[in-house]
Amino acid sequence: MISKVKSIFEEKFANGLLPQRQMGEASDIAKAARAISDGLLDYCSGQVLNVDGGLHLRIL
Question: Domain 1-60 is in which class?
Answer without folding.
Answer: mainly alpha
